[in-house]
Structures are given as C-alpha cells and as structure tokens.
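re: that chain from earlier
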Amino acid sequence: METHLARVLVCLAVLSTGVVRADPAPDGKPEAPPARTVLLLGDSLIVTSFGEYLEKSLNEHPGTRAMRRAKSSTGLARPDFFDWMAVGREEVERHRPDVVVVIMGGNDGQGLTDEKGKAKVQWGATGWEDAYRQRVVDFLGVLHAPGRKILWVELPYTGLPKFERKLGIIRRILREAVSAHEASKYLETKPFFTDAKGGLLKEARVEGFRKPMRLKMEDGVHFTLAGGRYFATRVHPAVIGLLGPGGGEPKPGTPKPATVAEVPVVSAASPPSETPSAAPPVETETRTREPAVCREFDAVSEAPMTSIPMALCYP
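^ sequence. v structure.
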C-alpha cells in the first residue's frame, strides 16, 4: 500500500511541474530543429579556397548547412555573359536560405550591358555609378525575402594602385547600396589585410600551418590555400552572428574561428580611373556543397582541396 501511494505521489509531482517534452523521433532520439541554410554566391573568390573553407566551416556547425553557387569572371556588369539576377533568383527559390553571403564586384569595372549584350553605359561615363547602384539594389531585391538576411562581403584590399582606384569606386557604391537595405549588412574587410601601419598584409599566421603563410597569389588578387582559410575564419563569425541564437557550437575538435570586431560603415569617394582593357572571360563555375578546386578553365567540384596553384582563376 505504501509503495503504491508513493508512486501516485511521484506521478502527481511530475505532472505539477508542467514540463512538456517533445516527442522523440522514430529512432528514439529527440528531433533536431530544422537546419538553417546559408547560400554563398560570388565569383572566383567563392569558387576557390575562401569559398571552400567558409562552406566547410559553416557545415561543421550543428543545425547549419551551407552551399555555394559561383562562377569566375562574373559580376553585375555583364548579364549577357552570366545573369546573376536570374541565377540569384533561381538559387534562393531552390534553397530558401536564412542567410545569403555575397562577394562580387571585382569584374564590374567596365561598361554595363543588358542581357542581350547591348551596351548601356560605359565605365567612367556620367550615369555609370547610378546605373550600377541600381543593379546592386535590384540584386538585393531578388535575394531578399521576409526573415532572410544578406551579408555582402567587401572585396579584399589588393595593394595594387591602379586596380584599387577602380575597386574604390565599386566598393563605395556597394557599401552605400547595401547599407541602405534594411535586411543587409556590409562587412568591411580592409582591416583583415592591412598591417599596423596601414600597409598590405602579405603574410599571417593561419590555423593549421606552422609558420606565417603568404595570403595572396602572385596576381595580388586571389588567395593561396592558406590565405583563403585565413579570410574564411574572419568572415565566418559574421555569418554565424546573422543566423542568431541557436547557431550551434562547432563540432568537437573544430578550430575556433577568429573573432571579428564590428567595423563601422563609412562612405568615402574614390577618384575615377582609366578604362582598362577587359580580360577575356574564363569559364569557371561551382554549384555544389562539395569542395571545389579551381584549375585552368574549370572548377572540379568533386575533387578535394589540394595544393594546385590557382593563379589561372580570375574573379
């Protein structure tokens, strides 16, 4: 009798707590919350080591999945070569991401065309900046959806004077357009690639390497394997931050990404530059969750990361 009474009292005590537990999954384990999705979009910086390592580190977070869609030599200037408006719409409809990460613009310092290749406005002409800004605004509109956030990663500092004059104009327009979009954030990256004196940071210590490693290829634009990993560990916290609470901790044994201080957004005009000769497009595309290795004219999505030089891949 006493045993039965004790059991009744225990049951009443449990019920009085009001605790409700989720039903377990068929295998007996609690059901995991739906994975949050991150979509990476961009040019060869996403095709190669930066995109690879960022995708990999995001997929190592429980409850987070990431995938890439990237094509070298592309941007918003030449939809006749590659239409990011159409591709961006296709990708967000397919994956319905919670966060979209974008890095592009390095190929956009040229005349703007329409989808059929008809010239609209030449680089350096009156109206180019307004026309390009409108394309950025339109692209943000294509990517946006209620509850979705967009992180636009600033084109890395190269230290190449002529190229930097052109990139300065493009960065400024991107910064202004993205900062004006309520669901978007512009991540400034120059602090990642400058030393204490403001000069170009050529080498740095990178997780997984014993000594300071060179960050860029000989072209000064594209990353070495170590440089891509260095950049990815600095962008990674900003992506996780946009995912908000529940982003999950890295799996045991995963290197902890470097923390990134909030960089204030400022607008600074850059002087115009001469129109350079356009390099021929290089057909390189990645559309996968698997690591990609950028070779001469191809991105081999199924291949693991190797030490193959990537100097022949263009942004």
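Residues 33-300 form a domain with the Rossmann fold fold (CATH 3.40.50.1110).
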